[in-house]
Records
---
Amino acid sequence: LLRSLGPHHRTHWCRHTCGKLLTMPLRLDVQKVMSMASERVKCCDIHPIEPWVLSALYSGHVIIWNYETQSSVKSFEVCDLPVRCAKFIAKKQWFVCGTDDMKIQVYNYNTMERVHSFEAHSDYIRCIAVHPTLPIILSSSDDMFIKMWDWEKNWENRRVYEGHSHYVMQVEFNPKDPHTFASASLDHTIKIWGLTSSSPHFSLEGHERGINCVSYFQGGDKPYLVSGADDCTVKIWDYQTRTCIKTLVGHQANVSAVCFHPELPIILSGSEDGTVRLWHSLTFTLENTFNYAMERVWALAYQKGSNKVAIGFDEGTVMVQIGQEEPVVSMDQSGKVLFARIHEIVQKNVRHGDKKIADGERLELPAKELGTCDLYPQSLKHNRNGRLVCACGDGEYVIYTSLRLKNKNYGQAIEFCWANDSGTYAIRETTSKLKVFKNFKKHRDFRPRFTVEGIFGGTLLAARGAKHVDFYDWEECRLIRRISVLPKKIFWSDSGDLCIIACKSTFYVLRYNRDLVAKFLSDGSEIGDNGIEKSFDLEKSVPESVETGHFVGDCFLFTNSAQRLCYYIGGQTIILAHLDRPMFLLGYLVKENRVYLMDKQYNVVSYRLLMSVLIYQIAIVRKDFEMAQKALRDIPIGQHNKIARFLEGQELKELALKVSRDPDHRFDLALQLKKLDEVKKIVVAYPSEAKWKQLGDLALAESFDLKLTEECFTKAKDFGGLLLLYTSLGSGQGVRRLAAAASKAGKNNVAFICYYLLNNVEECIKLLCTNGRIPEAAFMSRTYRPNDTKDILVKWKEHLSTISTKAAEALADPDTYPKAFPDFKQACNAQIALEAMEKKRGMLPALKYLSAKPLYNMNVIKEFKNFDISKITAETPAASVTPETTVEVKTKIEEEKKTVAPVKEPEPEPEPEPKVEPEEKKLNKSDELTLDPTAELELEPEEEVDPTPVKEEKDDLDIKDTLGGGELDANLDDELEGLDNLDVDGPMTEVGGPTPTLDELNQTLAELDREAKVDEDLDF
């Protein structure tokens, strides 16, 4: 008989025929969210927006806790006496508290400033209640009065309510009629008041001892009140009939706090016995009891729109979450949304929303109440075609029609799930027994060999154990595969080929091999303990915590714990939107091209996601490029950049370059593909120094286009790259230009190196002085330009005197202290002669280094001591020292090893013709070879004096053959012509041999290293 009745009729029959109600437990999980130790907590409150809990302490402090980070946000020293009550006023960014010095104090919790303080009562203040809409609060006190205060009128006392004959312990506004409120007193009564009258409307009597707390029922239309008293009981009152309808017994000490939860069908009661009890708000049966061993309970607080509850104990504050935070909601394929508000089933249609609303904006949708569910639904699930919906909770399930909520079937079940077949479903009847139904008739039941903790529907039936999840076929409930993971949820694609196993911090993408499984089962092969091997292939492991999810084709839409809306396709996770609050995915409508979500307050929002984009991406994943090309025509150009990013993630960079409209992205793609011409076009159209630099690097690495490289480095102001380029090519003219540009741009290091490489010591010294490096300039002039030492020394003294006069005076100059500067005069004369020689000879190419090295290794002072240069300095201008002078100087080096014929006195160099161009001018194409080999040989001895023999087969290469007849200048076309026409396989001009191999070059470098070790012992 009972099974033939629906839940509502079954409950009604049991209540009137059997005299008692047969119920199933709510099965609400209680999870501790926060536990913070402190002094005795007399009151607590939860902020409506921030993750904060307010605790009023007996020690006189008020603390704001963050329950997400489990830390103290702010602490206020309000009073030396106990603070018995405190409440948030979020719209003013205040909290208001009552202290035992009879004052009400108001604080701004952001600035931590005290906004107001006034004496409110003549005895301890027990409770404060904040009106939900009006700028008023109520306060109750041990002086037996209740007072109303208006904060917009400077906290004026608007009214005093008299009627109690003992301490007034609590007041609370009626959420259904905020113009009325209830009060609980130790005079054993509950009184109902109106805001406009100082006298109570009526009283409720029934407790045998003083009443400590009172709370209104907020769900449905039942006019209920709950109260707790020192008689250890909790009473439920009907304030319309003014009768007690139920007394709840179980506490062993005074009941100090009670409340009807606004979101759950439960009553919470806290007692001085240290326990918190959960009672069913409809059946009034005890559902749960928990004790956190923190001594007596003094306060309870809830938050509308949340399942969290804060509890104040003798030893601190605890916050718990009761049940699931996710709303009980389901949406069918037509856009009809069903959700449960406690026992009420409400419908909204997202198609009725504004079509032009912005992403993330709340949709104004009309709500239609379909009816009341006889059980408390903890889940609502549409079947695949959307015609049926199942509500499961209280240990029962009911299947309704989705349009009119007509009962189709019911039964006992802890959990319920649908198959991909619209008429097939499964239930978890107990932790060890599962049943499968087809068309509302039992098809099969079986008992897995483990304790089942949860079931999931889809292409296969999944049962989760303590250490694994098993997949079964729906037809015969045979084991298909055992996977050693603990899923929170399992999602299947519409085709049944893809399966998402969402675990705590990761989700796994599996591909189901349907044909392989069908063949295995048809062959009648024996199935092992772990099922059929290769029935699933792991495609991807994604480190995301999935909260809610939905498949659209092969695309998996989901929200994660970081409050982001994403979708996964082809191994890529793409972020669609960042959410400003926890949102729960409803589904996707193809015709609307939008994703729909709901928050905890049952507000629906949507985000645009084009179906054409999904079709294109799915086609790319399946390697169907023809279909993808067709789908691309339907995608707006504004979405092409998103498509290009997706293609890049799929390693289809050529295709991404064609699709992308973003010049920066196109530049990156062309750079990765090493498309030099494409990169250059983009850089010319959208120039930037960073892009020019990257183009120059690409030109140098891929095509060795030196002209383009120089142009790019110049426009990128890459002085380091230009230095590398010019020095590698031996371009003196380029180094000169670079020195000037770097000096002007303030790149002093590069400028110094350039001047040093050009042997322009004078500019090096000027650069050091300009940048305040005068000591370094003095030492450099002493070493390389002794004639400038005196001038630099004057500057050094002037600079140093600003810091220390004594230190400046301690600096010695060559005139005053000649002994401190040995051979200073000879060094000055040697400088004049060497500068004249360098000016006459010009700079040698790098290829001449080995043959010219002995000239630079000689001890200049020693050689000039043995050589009379008085005639040279007297008769020859500083700029006119003949090459023979250098010959005689260099031949002095060989006197340590062999005897050399006496050196002839050099004759003065004749004055040059006025029309002769300098030797450093640019070489013409017709004058390929302008350096006279015989003139160069006059500067070098026939034998090397370096102790380490060096191969000189390739040392006499003319610079013409390497750089095409001269140094680089502003126009590299002429300068690189010789390089372009160089016959690398034929004989060289001077050497008469082939181009040196890499091994030969390495050998030459090794010999240079050996010479460098020998040079360390030479005296410069």
Note: The chain has a mean pLDDT of 82.
---
Amino acid sequence: AAAAAPSAGSHARAKGRAAWMPARGAGGPMASFAAGRRPQQLRLKPVKEAASSSSGPLTTKVHFRVAYEQVNLGESVRVVGNHPLIGDWVPENGLKLTTTEDIFPCWISCEQIVFESNFQVQYKYVVVGEDGQLRAWEDYTGNRTFLTSGAEMAVEDDEGQYRQFVANGEDDDEEEDADLVEPVLTIKTPEMRKLMFDHKMSMVNDLEGSFKIGIHDTVFMVALSLPIKLIRGEGGSWQLDNKAPSDGRNFAWLPLVREFRERTKKRVVCVGWPGVHVDSFREKAEIERLLAKHDYIPVFPPQQDFDKYVSFCTTFLWPVFHDVMMFFQTSKPLAFDEQGWAAYQYINNLYANAVVPHTHETDLIWIHDYHLLMTSTFISRKLVKANIGFYLHTPFPSSDSFKSLPIREELLSGMLCTDQIGFQFFAYARNFLISVKRVCGHDPSFKAGGFFGLECNGRHIMIRVAHFVYPYLDTKQVVLATPVQRQAVQVRSLFKDKIIFVSMDRCDNLSGLVPKFRAFKRFLYQNQQYKGKAVLVQYTFESASGYDSTDCLLSTLKDKADGLLEVASDGDLAITPMEGGTDASNGDIFLRIEKVSRDDRLALFRAGDVLLDTSVKAGLNLMPFEFISAHHDEEEHPLGVMPSAVIISEFSGCSRVLLGSIRVNPWNTADLVSACKRAIEMDPTEKKEFHICNLQYVSGSSPFEWFKDFLEDLRRNRKKEGMRFEAVGFGAKIRHIAMTQNFQKLPTESVMAAYRNAKNRVLLFDNEGTLASDTRNLFREYGAPKGDVSDLKSHGSAPDERVLECLRTLCQDQRNTVVILSGRDQNMLDQWFGSVPRLGLAAERGFYYRLPMTGNTWHCMQTNPDYTWQSYAFEIMRQYVKRTQGSFIESKGSALVWQYRDADQHFGSWQAKELSTNLKDLLFGFDVEIVNGKGHVEVKLRGVNKGVACTRVLAKVTQLFGEVDFVLCIGDDRSDEAMFEALTAYFGNDEEGNDSTSSQGRPEVSTTDETSEGARSEIDAAARGVATGSSPLSSPSTSDPTIPRTSDTLGSLGLAKGRTGGRGGGFGGAGTLSSLGSLNNMGAMGAGGPLGGGDRSLARLGSGNLSFGGSGGLGGSGVLEDLSGGGGGGHQKVFSCTVGRKPSAAKFYLDDVDEVSELLGSLKSQHDRRSKEVPQSYHTWSGGDMRKGMRVGSMPALSSLAYGAPTARPKP
């Protein structure tokens, strides 16, 4: 939930956010009602909701809290405001607040007030008497206000006193133990106990929140086929069959969709293939009109492409997702089916095109199974904010199997384009997370409330684990129906007085049919007492899926079977001897080969005594659920010769939840034989307990709840408002990146314009990955290093000569301060950049630095730094290098880094966690911090980072040359994020790219994992100008925050105060003159005199006419700004830019190092062009030779007139 917009004197807390302290306005949080002020009667309309409540829940629950103790006996406090629920500004109808002796002077609301979301609430507190009549308004100027947002909020006008009472209350009876025992609040009254209970429950409920599907939102169910069946009616017209299909999961989908529609009154639209191929447009239109009445959208793929698509799914994806890798791991591997893959993408695109025209961004799109893995990719290309969920009904293969696929990136990209991914069981989700980690490098994340998922390019993708719930109640009714009962009796009559082992499987090698037949034969051979008394009845059907020939498998099964079950001419089942046989009535194994209806399947299970499942791999396997449902009443109406039992393969997903079953390894024949014997000889009481255990689980689960919970979680994880989403990449490998709204490509023209107009510029650059290509991954020294820490080598990339030439040109300009900030040491930076004069260098992330204004001597942030900790850290890191393959140690001067990005990611993360713990214990007492980052563990001096160095450079330049009016900061990796955050802290919303109305101080999305809270506090402190020390970057005489940055001379003239500065001279402000009072006309005013510093702009107000001359008086060459009376100081142009399009604290991005080089080249060209245009007499009073269209130069500062021409910036 988004935090409410703060207002002076109110304290609004949305769920999941830290509290911000209220502003102390008139009255303050401890409200005074003595000289009360009535409210301003201004009614605000609710803020318009965005696109059908796309911003979140429709309502917000609000609690009020205020601290006030000056009430008389019988008086109470109420909330009155601009909503009927809080009295509509009528004090007698306001919301009553209550207090108790435990929490006084806090007054809180006992009941939750439910406002509309995004409603601007205005309110005040009043005191009323026992009769409810007004006694006094609170003494508060204006109205308190907040914006409702999220599911629940607490408006705290008590400075958090209530929370302190709840968390830190003291027991008066144990004051002497207060220092030894944590204080506990003593609850004295029943009212307070109830308030405490409600408060705690509210905190618990906030973890999950309330995310409901909007009344105008639609749920789109996208699956391979529609859950209906089309038939030809009389006259050749198309009609809907009233019976739901019995194949796959379609028998469950249709009643489930209908139930959801009826109970929630929400619209559910099903999208899929209608089951028939039609070529004529007339028939397609007829089917579309027929299905539209029932909220079905048909997809009509070309039959030839559809056949290739189905073949690719069944012969490639189905085996692969079941960990069958016969395509790659044989002596004769099959070639990858390129045509099938092309057809797969084409059909997925057709499904996406069928969805997009009917949906908008607030609808929910739920895609099902491996047939449509790429559909989300094509939908998100057209609807970047589409709320997409995906559910995989099959297993997900192991990472070793999945990484063998030639299309692994494409399949993962399709799944990662969704907002939520569902799996049957965690084992499948674990395989997916490992594959994503190893292929894409994304790490899982966990949140309070049991939520977990992936952090992927600034987006959070939720992972939900909940298997498909079998429709028990519907099945129970079907089992009790006459057709099923009659067929069950018929099956029993064929095998009278025999123990029937039953099974239903598709005819493929994943069903384990051959091991099942072999084990059952051995069971009867080893237990002759059951010979002729136990039979196996196997139903199977041919399937297009699989990696081997179905005909070959059927031939093998027929050879092992003793008889076939077939439907006779009279419609009853009959036993047919196998070819060459005579009498099959005394056989052991009977086979029925055909696709039977659901009634036939349930009749078989109803008649059976033992279910025998030997699946080699199955995602869920619904057959055990059907068998248990078919025996729901076996105690009252027993049909078999013994209580039922269930034998399940441990490779079936259902074995994890049906705990009353006998689990077996189908490849262990002896284990299968023992399980068959145990199922028969198990004690009836134990068998009954097992059956009850399974029946309770099957009957206690609700398909409707499973359906609803998935959709609510999908809505909860919809893409955030206020973020921008972009697709990066080509073809099927695109990835979606979430960025803040103001994150955009660096506008080169704006940079050049700001650069031209600026007088005091600072340019900050990282080196590797910014000015030079990052080739650090090419230099790895594996194995435990020999020697000590001083022998560690560092490798890097030097910039090319073109970049160095650009830097030389930029450094020649006296208005520029150019600094390179790198993690490399001083020697390496001297070697790379020593040929560039007047270039500032900051080595080891700013620990050592050399600035043009401080001379060519290297300085250190600390005096006499202690490096003894490096020896300890190096030795323990060396031990971990010995035992972690692929890890190595890297020296960064003032920091040591243990890198494990080339090691196994999971093993490396385990070792990193242990190493971090050991380092914290070993280095306790040293002024260092241990950072466990992505792929590394770093030990560095506390408070040393590029952000602190950046802030000190800006402070030093400001102290010497006035306010900086242009900053360009470019970096590429996590360490550079500290620079971007420092710029935000230093300049606030003046930074270019920020919305002046935004209250966002730091971007929501950041890839920074190296800047600790301590480092951020150092950045903030430096930004406030309180950095101290002996460093030349700090000056006691100029860093005092009490020294104003504005010119008092401007204030004495009634002008708005601008920022100090300008390298152009004088002592005046360099800011914009934005308020001229009643002046209508001023003579030529200059920006270079004692009242102005540099070439800054002047503001023209109202109807006043300002004339600007090129010489004399106060004239200058400033740029005009018409502010129409608005006050305000100067505006700096600050450009923070990251290399690569990724979530960042920067405001802009460039795509690669080449674009950075092009930008430097443009700045160099600008400098060269300006040097040619400016005449030698540019600084003369008359402007010199004005031929060739030269513009008039600025008048020299008065201080310069006393000593001649303006002097250049002093050299260090």
Note: The mean pLDDT is 77.
---
Amino acid sequence: MSTGTLDGELLRALQDESSLPRAMRGVASALVNQLQETLSGIPEKTTKFAPPAHFGAGADRVTSVKFVAPERVYLTGSMANGGCLRISPGTSSSVADVAVEVPRGYFAAKDYLDHRYHAKRFAYLQVLQQHLSRAKWVASVSMSAHHGDVRKLCLLVTAAKTNDLCLRVLVTAPSDAFPASRLMPDKANLRHLDEVDGERAASPNYNQSILEDMFVEEHGKYLRDAAAEVEYLDDACLLLKVWAARRGMLGAPDGFTGFVLSMLMSHLVTTGGKLSPLMDAQQLVKAALTFLADPKVLSGGFSAAKQNLGRWKRAFPFVLIGPDGNVNIGARVSKSAIAEFAHEAALSAAVLERGQRTAFEQVFLSSMYPAVRYDVHLHVTMDRNKTSASGSCDADAVSWRALEARVDEIATKTLGSRAKVIRVQQQSFVNASDIRPSLEAAAQPGTKKRKASEADDTVGSVDEEHFKIWIGIILDPDNASRLVDLGPSSDDDALAKAFRAFWGDRAELRRFKDGRICESIVWDAIPAHKRHHIPALALEYTVKRNLDAAEDVDWSCNLLDAALRGKDGTGQEEGSTESSAKTLVQSLDRLSKRMKELKDLPLKVVNVQPLSAAFRGTDPFPPKPHQLAFGAGIGMGRSDEQISVCPKPLDVLVQLEGSGRWPDNSTAINKTKAAMALKIAEQLRSSFATQTVVAEEAIDVLHEGFAIRMHINSTAGGANNEAAERHLICGAAHAGVIATVNLRFPAYGPATQVAKRWIAAHMLSPHFKGETIELLMAHLFLHPGAFEPPTSREVAFVRFLDLLASHPWNVLPLFVDPAVEEDGDEGITGDEMQEVEKKMDDPDAPSMCIWTPYDSAGDVWTQRGPGAVVLKRTQVLASRGAERLKAILQGRNGMDASATKNDANAIRLGDDAAWESLFTPALTHYDIVLKLRRASLPFPDHALFTAKQIKRRLIKELGVDADGLLEAEHGNKRGLQLAKMPEKVLARGPDKARAAMLVGFDPLRCFLREAERRLGGTALLFADEHGGDLIGVALKPSMQHHGAELPASLGDFDPLGDFSAPAAPSVDQIAEELLFCGVGFVIDAYKGAKWA
């Protein structure tokens, strides 16, 4: 790079990391020399040959071949022509392409017909494989389907002394092996194909599979000449490949391979004239992405030979004619790959055009695999008996390519404007590589045997009878959940008939308000909480109806639904709209109107602002209407309804008019505010018969079934009041920001609920405030970078886990600013940035810094947690969860990550255990685990796991004795009962029952606060605030004891004698103290595995 900017430094670092070292090129050249020496020693001989069955009719005419030594063996591809990646996508090593050119005399004049060329090519490859397997310098040799095409096999050769380099041996033919005119896209060279309009159908894909072998050297020369002409072309090609690889697009057989990208970039710079040769690498890539962001440009085609593209465009979705004028280098690129490439190019070009500080990092350094780019993932299980998954060659293209095209056609027709992008691939190639042994290799002589399970994994098959097609969908948020799909008018008989044939019984004729009578598909029967399922339901229906081979369709829209339900299967999603954010805000508006009408108040109520997460749709379990909170004299509802003892309050901010008579100190201010709240409660009772609950901590108004907890805002009274209420003011500002985000992005609320549920499920509730989680999720929607803002909860959740795991919290703050929607940190000035970074360098600074317009210090929600140790643990959990979820969404091949090999790949989309694998916490890492009484929890039904599941985990992970656990439960039946209002209390009537309510009481929080006070600096406590009945205790490594009250005997010493610091408490002492502290609430304490 010629520039000295930060982007230039990042580019140089990226080149050093991604480009192939010069030494590796020398190793590759040495191996090619060894390969040539080995192959030149193979004697000429005639051998019998039986072509594989997948070549189809015509190839069986090749019964014997006469082997001759190769004409040439030379290095080709990016290793020779420039722009080679250090690690090939989907593999763990460098890959060097080696061309083995077969002499012209090996082929007969008519071998371009009916797969004879491919059969002889395969026979030649077999002979090479046999001799290479006996060479001493070769560690392994196996066959692989090049670009997933079984008729174009290649050899993968690894040397004994070079494990980090793989030679991909490609058999090629001389440029004059066959007449190029006989292999043009409109020529028919497969004579068994059906006739079209009295003529044999053309075979463009088949023809190109031969031509691409004939002009390998010409294409290499074109790339080398272009690199010699343009100084930064190699660097630009490398950067463009890195860009595609970061998005999981480089290894797809039907996508833009590294060779296609290099040829395309070279064409745009030299022949096409679209880019200037004087540009540097980053400018070339930016200009190329901007130009290629239009799908019409990609579909229009390119030609380095200056010829008419009409016949080529009729045969292929993407056309890129090489310098020879005979080969379409983009012949394998599918329609869905074009749409994907154009969409990602547009997003990246927009980010680079804005020129934010982190633009280069977001576009070229961030991993953006399909699992995090697509909103909806579907896995279609296909019957192998009804189609050929392995890629038979009965048609012009291999069979699985035709099947992908058919599924893409169905998906496009089904979803219409619901989707921005639809990508269809055989699941084994999603974010993977075709550089792997094929099934046919297992049967070839001279190769090492592999286990059947390993062979099965290479094609990503479910079993011998089935395989899967993956569909990825980027949704249009404006249309994704619409209830009506409008079809053709009833006047158009042909279109209406086709519409009904496609949709079957789902189609119905309807009259609309504007008078039109049209065919339509209506989804109004689907409940509101399941309408995010509509795109997947529609596609599942049409795929099963229009594709005979489709047996089952699994989709991701319902993957995380169970996480928002309690163990009894109920939750916000299954409830009515009585607890929705909209309903709660409307109820508060009515109460606010009443408060503003109150006249006999010292200071009038100016405004009432919602504070609780339930008002903004981010609470996994918003409060339900309570039977005792509807006002005086109202009954308690149905007799079979369970009435909670501790209804959940809804916090609101009550803004009073300004006054100069407020006191000066915070204590007096708080007492004055309490008096104001009492006066408001008294006036509501006298004017509207509204019941109130007055306690020392708060005053709650019982309004329309909800307990509204008032917080008086006195900031209009002066600076003293404002300083005393900083946290309250920030809470109000935060509520406004998050409510706005929730209204703009329909997926934000459910996604934040899932994130909060995950934090709680892993027992991190004491360390993360809900506001922190909301800001993390808001960052993903407001500043998506080179992504689209997520439109589904599962994709928002996986991005949340990635952000939590990968952000450098110790050195960089996270910026959340609704005023700067697209990206970056332009909402903060340079001076503010320096001030934030200076505060982060302070040893006492919080471990997370989240900058917002209302919190310039970035610590209002993170000042008390999480600590550095807890944050590190959270990042590890998030990283594992993200990898596991990506593997589930993308399929069995997943990310090819060794970390997920044993568990994630065993779980598939659609399995009942899929969501549980993400939310189940590990107990083995805790030193002590406390078991709580479920009846003592206010909402035990919110728990993710049943009591039986918890027992099994305690027995399995901690070795707890089952009989002892049962005995402890039976021995603690007496104690605090908060799960249900006792019948004796209810029998006394509503007034007595209302007086027995404990609004907002949380025994878990009280116990944790008391336990932390007693333990001091000895341990960290972990718990699940949503009905969890386990508490994890992690002892600090030093076991230091700072002002702790544990145990009581430590306080017994002679103050006049020699005092020495008490010894660190033992695990048993800590467990004993916690049991004493939680009498009636804690059933038992179990030591971790390392203390057993």
Note: The radius of gyration is 34 Å.
